[in-house]
Specification:
Layout (H helix, E strand, L loop, with lengths): L1 E5 L3 H12 L3 E5 L11 E3 L5 E3 L5 E2 L3 H9 L6 E5 L2 E5 L2 E4 L3 H5 L6 H16 L11 H9 L1 H16 L9 H12 L1 E2 L4 E7 L3 H14 L3 E3 L6 E5 L2 E7 L2 E4 L2 E4 L3 H7 L5 H8 L3 E11 L8 E4 L8 E4 L13 E4 L2 E3 L10 H15 L8 E14 L19 E3 L12 H26 L6 E2 L3 E2 L2
Parallel strand pairs: 1-2, 1-15, 2-11, 7-17, 15-22
Antiparallel strand pairs: 3-4, 5-10, 6-10, 7-8, 9-10, 12-13, 13-14, 16-19, 16-20, 16-21, 17-18, 18-19, 23-24
Bound molecules: flavin-adenine dinucleotide.
Flavin-adenine dinucleotide binds next to helix 1, strand 16, strand 21 and helix 12.
Length: 456
């Protein structure tokens, strides 16, 4: 079976690996000159390669760690106990576990207790579907009270979801606080966070190398211009005026880009894809000559600041692996068409540095080695209240065309753990369905297992 995968990010490369393992002749097409997509890297002026967007591996990332094991990368995985905090009322407060919430200094005792119970209650909740129709604000006010909501949660929700913050379901809070719990070891809730030497790209490159060893092909700098569809069937990919035939095509790009690649898909499918909303992101990266916060992640509960959080990855990556640099990422979430996305890099630098100096009065601009700005218009799908009808399916209305994208595993967080798990699932669906078709065409009766899977 000859299958094309559109996109060479973590999803495309993991899928390629799982399919190649099953003997599929897989070819991956990546638009840019490097693999990795959002998990890719950028070269600093001195040639050091660093994550374009901050990436960490958590001790609970079971699928990702299993892949590292399979590819003999476990010895490159470094996990450390690390610190998280909240910037609130001009000060940094550690929030590494329940006891820190109980001691949170800017809240009254009763509010601390309610905050703590709210975090525990959300972390241990299993029936998350009940939260799907519940507004995050209403849920948090009910659990923590108006004062805690206004002073802690509201600024964080506003900075993450911007103008749609009052329309997000409580499942979003559930997914984030649950992920905090899963990186905690026991009730003391010690954080374990880490990285692969060489970043997530080391894993992606190892997957790519194995795909090629198993006979697959990877084409870099080859943007797919169209997925060819005729009579309701996908039959290949178009590059300029040349089309290459494939028996199946799997797109791994965000829904708005995918929509542009399928002009001959049914109009109702276009209409459905048009309704999937995305958040964009702007991520300035400060390359410093010294550490600044001592925290892996600081959430900013203060509406004066443009950035949502501060992520200092060199608190868990030894700077010796990064040319001695200290890396501080200052992300801001925006809607794709927001005016923030129209600002020039220089304007962003001016605003961000002004705010950074407010946060760290001792900071001196002479400590900066480089200031970079990266952006993505379609970083993460937005799920509004009762928005589960807007989750696109893996099998599409077009025969032999599949979609594997981060919009599909809601309410799980958008990270490489969810992506690698999802890619395995998609590979299985493609194999099952294509095998089923093959047997039907050849007059063989497929053997159905578990109502869905077909024995290959
Ligand atoms: C700021 C930030 C921080 C993050 N932090 C973490 C973290 O700490 N841990 C973690 O696990 N995850 C993290 N993630 C999430 C992680 O990066 C994503 O979940 C993952 O990379 C998504 O992979 P993907 O392949 O689905 O999408 P993408 O990475 O977007 O890949 C899609 C690929 O398709 C290519 N493409 C687009 N159009 C075409 C075309 N026409 N033809 C061919 N190719 C095309 C693109 O160039 C791209 O390479 C973070 C993401 C961001 C942005």
């Amino acid at each position: 079976m000859k299958v094309a995968v559109v996109g060479g990010g973590m999803m495309g490369v993991s899928l390629g690996y799982f399919l190649a393992q099953e003997g599929v002749a897989v070819e991956i097409y990546e638009a840019s000159s490097d693999l990795g997509g959002l998990a890719g890297q950028v070269l600093l002026e001195d040639g050091t390669s660093v994550d374009r967007f901050f990436h960490a591996i958590l001790s609970s990332d079971a699928y990702l760690r299993q892949l590292c094991d399979e590819l003999n990368l476990t010895s490159h995985l470094q996990l450390k106990e690390k610190r998280m905090g909240i910037y609130h009322q001009g000060e940094i407060h550690p929030v590494n576990g329940i006891f820190d919430f109980l001691r949170f200094p800017t809240l009254r005792s009763i509010d601390r207790l309610r905050l703590c119970l709210a975090v525990l209650c959300t972390q241990y909740l299993r029936a998350w579907r009940r939260l799907e129709g519940v507004n995050a604000e209403e849920w948090l006010v009910k659990l923590c009270g108006e004062r805690v909501f206004k002073s802690i949660w509201r600024p964080m929700l506003r900075s993450k979801y911007g103008e749609v913050f009052d329309d997000v379901p409580a499942t979003q809070i559930w997914a984030s606080t649950k992920s905090m719990r899963s990186i905690c070891a026991g009730f003391a809730q010690k954080q374990l966070v880490g990285h692969l030497i060489g970043g997530h790209l080391a894993l992606i490159n190892a997957l790519a190398k194995n795909i090629e060893k198993m006979g697959g092909k990877i084409h870099l700098g080859r943007p797919v211009q169209e997925i060819m569809i005729e009579d309701g069937r996908a039959w290949g990919l178009r590059f300029g005026n040349k089309a290459i035939p494939y028996e199946a095509v799997i797109a791994t790009v965000p829904a708005p880009l995918y929509r542009q690649l399928i002009p001959d898909a049914p109009p109702t499918y276009h209409g459905f894809l048009d309704r999937i909303e995305y958040m964009g992101i702007i991520v300035p990266l400060l390359v410093l000559d010294r550490p600044i916060s001592g925290y892996w992640r600081l959430n900013i509960a203060d509406e004066r600041f443009s950035y949502t959080s501060l992520i200092e990855t060199t608190t868990f990556i030894d700077p010796q692996f990064l040319g001695g640099h200290h890396l501080v990422y200052l992300p801001k979430y925006t809607m794709p068409d927001s005016w923030w996305q129209q600002l020039s890099d220089d304007e962003i630098q001016t605003i961000w540095l002004y705010e950074f100096e407010t946060m760290f009065p001792a900071f001196d601009q002479s400590w900066i080695r480089q200031f970079l700005v990266h952006r993505e218009p379609y970083f993460e799908p937005v799920h509004r209240l009762d928005g589960t009808d807007h989750i696109p399916s893996i099998k599409t209305p077009v025969e032999n065309l599949y979609l594997a994208t981060t919009a599909q595993f809601y309410p799980k967080l958008n990270n490489c753990e969810s992506v690698s798990k999802h890619a395995r699932h998609v590979a299985q669906i493609v194999l099952d369905e294509q095998c089923h078709c093959y047997r039907q065409q050849n007059g063989q009766t497929p053997q159905v297992v578990d109502n869905e899977r077909v024995v290959v």
